[in-house]
Amino acid sequence: MARNRYMVGLVFLTFFVMSLLTNILGPIVPDIISSFGVSLTAAALLPFSFFIAYGVMSIPAGFWVERFTEKPVMIAAFLAGTIGSLSFALFPAYHVAVGSLFIMGAGMATLQVAINPLLRVAGGEEHFAFNSAFAQLIFGTASFASPRIYSYLVENLGKPSARGNLLLQILARLTPPALPWASMYWIFAVFTVSMIAVLGVTRFPRVEHTGDESAGSLEMYGSLLRKPMVWAFFLCVFAYVGCEQGTADWISKFLAQYHGYDPHTTGATAVSWFWGMLTAGCFVGMGLLKLFDSRRVLIGFTIGALLCLTAALFGPARVSLIAFPAIGLFASIMWPVLVSLALNSVSEHHGPFAGILSTGIMGGAVVPVIIGRIGDFAGLRAGVAFLYVTFGCVLSVGFWARPIITNATILHRDNAVEAVAEPDGGRPK
To answer: How far from chain centre, in Å, is Cα 416?
Structure first.
């Protein structure tokens, strides 16, 4: 199949914009608390609104893509992102933020479902693995950049030095002086409107969904949901995304509350480095997965994350400032390993199973709220300590997972089939 480099680039750009919108929540949590005078729990309801949309939209989005094709669904998703961004940019209030973030999250969840089959077709099946890894690198780059854009705007908006900068002048007129961080939502609106324009003039290739990529039927979902193993992997994916967002969303507030660091500069930079380390860790993890069984790598990286979490929570200021971003380094391989172990543990219905796993992204909604709730009653340190539970769930997978096919390593280039004598691989039914 001929490769469509323009379309591949468009998918990469989509990943960039998705990440830009998704990973700003951590840096703005301290601003939400101070600007609106809300509790830790109320602040956590904002990432909850965003990520719960993944639980609501992931499976329906698969059916929409099959019925309407990728282009109109992607345009509708970016339109949702525009509506969500503009609603808060025009009416910056706490109750508006809750609704706008749900709308934005729904759009991003829909995009995630639409673009992966498109990347396979546009880039060629033989290049899909490489292109997927590169897309994650693009995603991580935007995650690294988003908090830095936020810092730049908050530090410079409204200052005399901004008079010579047209962008800052425009944003200063549009944004309430007391809420300079809200200017980010005007930036988001510009990106999403631009993507709608680009998509509108782009001719999309025809995407033929394979049996594994199809949304599946209700019977398939019912069959999968009757298996305890499916629920176990769903809960562990739920826990992982909770680890990721629960860390990122509370880094800045924790460093400000316990160590006095400025959330607009040092706190935002720490969040940026968390995402940067998570991206860099992918390269380390990819190398280790060529040497060792993925379950052993998962165990090692999760133990590393737990040690960093301990240092971040109980170490002095400088140690905490380094340890929080370092959690990202060890969290880097958890998502791909969990998903690959899950999909390699079933012999059929991989498309519906992937949809079920995607709904686990709503762990990023629930865990930050739990942390905030505990933090309101027992202090934020006790709240963030809840991550020991979620990381513990991820750690457990390395001990109980029994995939039908294990990852190929240098010593074992052919994937090891573990279920020859025992068709179900010893896993629970």
So the answer is: 30
